[in-house]
Fold this protein.
Amino acid sequence: MKILLIKILAIFSIAFSVLIFIEYKGYFEPKIEKGEHVNRKWNAFYRLNDKINFDVLLVGNSHLYTGINPKNLSAALAANSFILAAPGTKLPDHYFALKEALEHTKPKIVVLETYGIKACEVKALTDGGLSDQLKSFSSRKDFKIKLQSTPSLFSVENIPYAWFNSLRNHGFLFNNPEQIKINMQDLNIPKTDTSELYLGRYVRWQTGLKENTLDRYQTDGAPVNGKDFEMNDEAITYLKKIADLCQEKQIKLMLLTLPMYKEHVSNYDVWRRTLDSSMVANELNVDWLDLQANYNDLLFDKNCFEDTYNENQHMSYPGSIAATYQLANFIDANYPDLIDPKSADTLWRELYYNEEGFLENHSPNLNDPKVQILAKDIKVGNLILNELLLIKRDAQYKLLAKVKKDNSIELVDLAKHKLRLLILFKMEGENNLMRSYVDMGFIKYYRTLEDDLYIQGVKKIEILKIESISLIDN
């Protein structure tokens, strides 16, 4: 019996050593592509955190990383923001992800998106829910916090799958042997583009709801009913843990509810009251930007949402831009002294300068050959044109006009007008002078802290002179 036990122990030791070796080599790691969000997020977080501190951390699930654009948020606030989110995850995952992040960065604000705040039992997850939780756990880097979180997130039988890619992805042997070969050959090749500024966003839907989906709301009603929303002890426990963690670290915690289409949800007031009463009962007093309860019909139109009638509806790219600037304006109005703007910081400008959202919120570098400043500080009718730019970075150039924002003017009134330019120009590579009117439409999704934006794409031209600027009726 002693010899048998020694043999069993020896076999187990060899098998475990092989398993550790395979894990160390990464033979069963999934391919990290541009659209593979979960691993890219943590890789980017640690890479960036070596040189910057994040001012705003956003925590949630897929509603968050499709619904907020962190580059635009960072540009609007002149700050550093990052999204820590994974698909299908709930509050326990959010808590441990946040706990890991706070070991390595010191934000001023944590934004918790509310779609993951609901009744949950993560140790009882199966199928897709378990798969999402496993992927999120596996992508985290901090060994100590992963070890601490393991018994809270997984039942005993699922712990090995959480810790070992080779067990979780053993199916690669049969259905994806090519990936194993790639992993064996490319161990020293970085799996992500380290030159890219990645802040946790996962762009998916560029277009909005189609007519046949809109028709279903009329015939079938809303697919989501707020009366079905429930909280339980586990959700409340982890909501309080997040609040306590932020209080301990002296971080401002706020809630954010990103909207679904207005006809996608019925009885949202019941949903809101259920969550609100849970917070009150547990003495959680936090600010809450609720874009569903305070739904803006003029801003969040059909173009802002994923074309689906399924329960889980996300935001499209235009919707994410609109929601991002709603959040930026909320933070600026409610916490004006929490974040020190970095717009004059050389490192910050270099990091964000060529990224989306920068020129919409900041003046270009004077020596930038790809951005031409056409006009500044001009009164047009009853508007003040702060800046007019010709941006030459894409295949099609873009005119961008930044008009001083007047919050007393409604979106519907702004949309009634266009900026009309009379320009003297020539086509690139040609000498013939031409003169033409260009009409620039108001883009309602961008309402920055200071400006309203008018944008128009143009061919590759060289503008020699702006002969006139006027307002015309749409």
